[in-house]
Amino acid sequence: MKIAVDAMGGDLAPQAIVEGVIQAASELPSEARIVLIGRESAILEIFNQNNFTPTNIDIVHAEDVIEMGEHPTKALSQKPNSSIGVGFRLLKEKEVDIFCSAGNTGAMHVGALFSIKAIEGILRPAIAGFVPQVGGGHAIMLDIGANADCKPEVLAQFGEIGSLFAQYTFQIESPRVALMNIGEEEQKGSLTSQATYPLLKGNKKINFIGNIEGKDLFNNKADVIVTDGFTGNILFKLGESLYEIARKRGIKDDFIDQTNYESIGGSAIIGVNGNVMIAHGISSPLAIKNMIGWAYKQVKSKAYLHIAQALN
Fold first, then answer.
1. CA-CA distance, 107 to 70, in Å (whole number)?
2. Are 84 and 101 in contact (CB under 8 A)?
3. What CATH number does the domain located at 123-262 have?
4. 3-class DSSP assignment, residue 196
5. Helix (H/G/I), strand (E/B), else coil: 247
6. Sign, Cα dihedral of 2, 262, 67, 150
7. DSSP string of 271-282?
8. Which residues of 265-283 are buried (b: 16+ CB within 10 A; e: fewer)?
9. Which one of 8, 91, 128, 138 has the fewest beta carbons within 10 angstroms of its own beta carbon?
10. Is the CATH number 3.40.50.2300 carried by domain 1-120+271-300?
11. 135-170: per-residue pLDDT in tens?
12. 220 in Cβ contact with 132 (< 8 Å)
């Protein structure tokens, strides 16, 4: 198994990224290798600073970097030898099994659509966030930012692909799928929510449990939480803020610790023909290390193949 990591993507790159890779390398199962993509001299310099000799890491040199503020489509076409461009080329050619980056999120999303492309039948790929649950484990919420506006058919499909992703990633036989709304009653919510509810309810392939509210986000009500990317992003970032507030107030709590963005480190793009994970731009070495651990699980789950199979 080859896990590709963009060494140059992120506000603290390449230092934090390479240090995170060094931490992950010692904990990875023997069947896995890390492929670091970026400026080789910069990567080797950080290895030397840490007195690190890689045994399960390969370096693929990429001279260019797509900066955080660049226009995704323009940057990808003008910088084919950027770390993101090279990463997607390797993924498309099946030289690597997953590509992870803390770089330009737009470029990662566009890069996935241009290279490995959306699975046939997918209306809109989504970014899925892992949401910690009070009783332990995680739910996935989709979308958390790729599609700010969603039609009912798109949200209904999120329920189906989210269910498959949860089933194979978390080994849950029949994941509970819920629609995020402003009330539990069927007729509640926006026009879009009201139109989405019957589509989810009528889909016999999923275990739809109805609407949930914001107060249920962490309460182990659902395994898959369906929402548009606008609402999902706000909820997800609100959840992540709990850790910083608690830390500043001197509160130590096992559950709140899990809301720290570093504890998972990345979010999956679901609905494309391959494995892609995107991380926070501010990712620390710990976040990168944890993202690589989840990347390993994602490859093992083969979730994207199960989604493709179910849709075609």
1. 9
2. yes
3. 3.40.718.10
4. helix
5. helix
6. positive
7. SBSSEEEE--TT
8. bbbbbbbbbbbbbbbbbeb
9. 138
10. no
11. 899 999 999 999 999 999 999 999 999 999 999 999
12. no
Q: How many CB atoms lie within 10 A of CB 219?
A: 13
φ, ψ dihedrals at 189, nearest 5°: 100, -175
Place of tokens 């849709």: 311
- Rounded CA-CA distance 300/295 in Å is 9
User: One fold for both 1-120+271-300 and 123-262?
Assistant: yes
Q: Strand pairing of 224-226 and 176-180? A: parallel
Cβ neighbours around 107 below 10 Å, total:
28
Question: What tokens does 224 get?
Answer: 């898959």
Structure tokens at 108: 């990662």
Q: What's the half-sphere exposure (Cβ side, CA atoms, 13 Å) at 218?
A: 13
Residue ranges of domains in the chain: 1-120+271-300, 123-262
Beta partners for residue 13, in sequence order: none
